[in-house]
């Protein structure tokens, strides 16, 4: 007999867990829709030709690949087989893979459906993705992403609206967060000024350690990467950047005075900060020059959201890209988007115990079963409640009272209706409030009211 | 440059299609919850040891199998490789597969979580499944199932509630359907009476052709399967069964008088019909002895639902099973369940054009963009509307009026707000009803009211 289990890195979700997850998904969806974003879905499987080469060499390895159907070994040459080169053979026996994120499928979707959609295209997509990563705490092989993007518009209003969405989602979820923001053009400007364009990653990695190791060590680390003394001298004002966002931007304007692209980046951030202020965005927004997610990919604003009251990596992130669809033959489509990490948000809410007590998905009332006669009395009551939109159920067979009550407890059903001779005679039910233990006779009208 | 495409048998869903699909899913979910069913989810990937051998030899072939990660060819012997036996090699290079239905994962779930769930366990599950079937009209390689099951109760009340759920779902979706019902015990009884237990499938296949080919040809077909003349003579009253459900059951009582299990089946159906009548189920329920879905699997009632106004296979089906979890080591768990085929329902609604005109997911109002000053005027209006829960958006950049209007048309946005000097001076907007073309000046309060 098999003892059943599931693949490592994957999870089942019980009803209580699903209610909690749906609370997150529904909150996010409601806000997306408030801002005019519309849902799309793409298949779990994509052609490997769509996926391969989009996530780097490491990403290619982490794709889950689907074995071709039928007699896939047929036609393979002896030396191919005996070479035992798993990577080469994969191309021969597999042509589909599970999606790795929602971005590449979205780019593919936009190109494939370009004549059906109207631009600017504001879409959201909430689906699982799969990665053959080594599973560990907070890292799963199947997890949900909630992506929201606008493509076909380079207006900074879109950046504002994404920030407003973050602000609103976390306000509703009651999670305290900080939004970190940077701009790829500022990073390009810095690299330009110091004449070390290709070292920009080394520099941001070093800057990132400022709080921990201090200015001196940061300078040492930068020097160790082969960056010239002259360039390091020019970097000093950037390393010492401090104050409010406005003050930082002012200092950057001086430093980047000779870089057109750098000044463009500063000006974009000024516009975004100005719009956020005008729109009274509540969440703290922090200019963070060390923020450099997917450097080769983003071309403008870069965002990252961190939860303040719990140790957890970034729970939302994204930015502006100018050529998402180029790889599929559609050039010049600018877009900006962010992705909410639903599984990390789920873990944060679990840690902080921030779920609402009641869920719309729960049963509101359980009718206790005694026997045939009581059953036939209760059934029309059940129908009447359901017709009023009340989630209601009856224990399906006469069982011990204790068993039926603990069923109600386990399902967190707030009310139980008990029916005996007296109740039937008076055309009422005995309604028990499971939280307070209070009992009272109720007519159907009273029941609808109370439940 | 790659021309992007998706694997055959899979589909993308555009925003309009998603709104239509969500209408189906939400309708089904709402009804499931009204009856106290709770949602679970299981991973897309299951261990092949969980899936293999559960769907017959053909089913095993139709499973999508995931290639092991890493150097999966390593360690395979020369003769294994050169044998090129795809089936044998699959066991060596793949240990996970995509779920084929929701029933086996559910059985696995119940066994694995038996100590966390309270029985009777009423669960629903709405997730995609994958089958490497040859794609054709109405048959996809990725499609959604919506399963609803009660396990751990053999009360016929559960059968009633599933019928009520079917009745309510299709009433809400406005699809005219007939519910066909049979009972596995009656089929066993028939086999017992005529002494041809193992020929029951041949017999039901033949009975199924009665309408098309008539009694004589049906008898010929049965005889051709090697069934004795005596048995065929005993079958005649069953083949000639006619009248109302009650009349049919009465005739069956006579025919099956010597079969205990057969009479049990008749009595179960009588109870179910009685309950349906008491609860005023509106949908026609038809006793259909040819209904024999998954004969080896079901042990009591068998259901199937057909749409009346469109050519389409069964759109919902299910039945009672007495040993769902036995294969995973948990014996004696009786259950009953049905599965709604969301993709077929989607096709039916498309054919009959039965979607509601407006969807809660749509944007209600678009603000037209003219320039900086108008933008700053409009943004607080947008916020105010969103705070009232109104889905609202602004065209993100100043573009030609015609372009903005056709954007609203394409997204089926019912209202457009236009702002110029006059409106700003009066603290109003010009509201255009996109359906009627009517325009009127509106204050914020009036806007919330109208939209």
TrEMBL record, chains A, B:
Its EC number is 6.1.1.21. Residues 1-380 form the Aminoacyl-transfer RNA synthetases class-II family profile domain. Coiled coil: none annotated. L-histidine binds at residues 101-103, 131, 145, 149, 293, 297-298. One of its GO terms (molecular function) is histidine-tRNA ligase activity. It is found in: Cytoplasm. SUPFAM superfamilies: Class II aaRS ABD-related, Class II aaRS and biotin synthetases. It is an enzyme of class 6 (ligase). It comes from the Bacteria. GO terms for biological process: histidyl-tRNA aminoacylation. Keywords: Aminoacyl-tRNA synthetase, ATP-binding, Cytoplasm, Ligase, Nucleotide-binding, Protein biosynthesis. NCBIfam families: hisS. This is Histidine--tRNA ligase. It comes from Paludibacter propionicigenes (strain DSM 17365 / JCM 13257 / WB4). The gene is hisS.
């Amino acid at each position: 007999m098999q003892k059943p289990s599931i693949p490592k890195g994957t999870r089942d979700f019980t009803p209580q867990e699903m209610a909690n997850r749906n609370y997150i998904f529904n909150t996010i969806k409601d806000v997306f829709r408030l801002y005019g974003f519309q849902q799309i879905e793409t298949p779990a499987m994509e052609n490997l030709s769509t996926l391969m080469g989009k996530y780097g060499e490491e990403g290619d390895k982490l794709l889950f690949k689907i074995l071709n159907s039928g007699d896939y070994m047929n036609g393979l040459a002896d030396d191919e087989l005996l070479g035992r080169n798993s990577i080469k053979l994969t191309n021969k026996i597999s042509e589909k893979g599970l999606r790795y994120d929602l971005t590449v499928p979205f780019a593919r979707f936009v190109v494939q459906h370009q004549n059906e959609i109207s631009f600017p295209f504001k879409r959201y997509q909430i689906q699982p993705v799969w990665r053959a990563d080594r599973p560990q705490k907070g890292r799963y092989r199947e997890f949900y992403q909630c992506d929201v993007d606008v493509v076909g518009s380079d207006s900074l209003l879109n950046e504002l609206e994404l920030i407003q969405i973050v602000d609103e989602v976390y306000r509703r979820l009651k999670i305290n967060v900080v939004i970190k923001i940077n701009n790829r053009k500022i990073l390009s400007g810095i690299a330009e000024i110091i004449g070390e364009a290709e070292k920009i990653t080394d520099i941001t990695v070093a800057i990132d350690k400022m709080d921990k190791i201090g200015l001196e060590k940061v300078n040492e680390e930068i020097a160790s990467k082969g960056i010239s003394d002259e360039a390091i001298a020019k970097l000093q004002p950037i390393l010492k950047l401090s104050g409010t966002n406005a003050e930082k931007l002012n200092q950057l304007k001086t430093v980047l005075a000779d870089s057109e692209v750098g000044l463009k980046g500063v000006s974009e951030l000024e516009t975004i900060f100005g719009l956020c202020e005008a729109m009274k965005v509540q969440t703290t927004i922090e200019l963070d020059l060390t923020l450099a997610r997917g450097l080769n990919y983003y071309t403008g604003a870069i965002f990252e959201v961190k939860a303040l009251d719990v140790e957890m990596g970034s729970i939302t992130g994204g930015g502006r890209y100018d050529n998402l669809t180029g790889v599929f033959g559609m050039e010049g489509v600018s877009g900006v988007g962010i992705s909410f990490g639903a599984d990390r948000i789920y873990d944060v809410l679990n840690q902080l115990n921030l779920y609402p007590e009641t869920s719309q998905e729960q049963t509101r009332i359980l009718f206790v079963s005694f026997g045939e006669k009581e059953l036939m009395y209760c059934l029309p009551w059940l129908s009447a409640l359901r017709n009023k939109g009340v989630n209601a159920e009856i224990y399906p067979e006469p069982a011990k009272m204790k068993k039926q009550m603990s069923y109600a407890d386990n399902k967190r059903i707030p009310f139980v209706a008990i029916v005996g001779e007296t109740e039937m005679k008076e055309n009422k039910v005995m309604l028990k409030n499971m939280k307070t233990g209070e009992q009272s006779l109720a007519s159907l009208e009273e029941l609808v009211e109370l439940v």
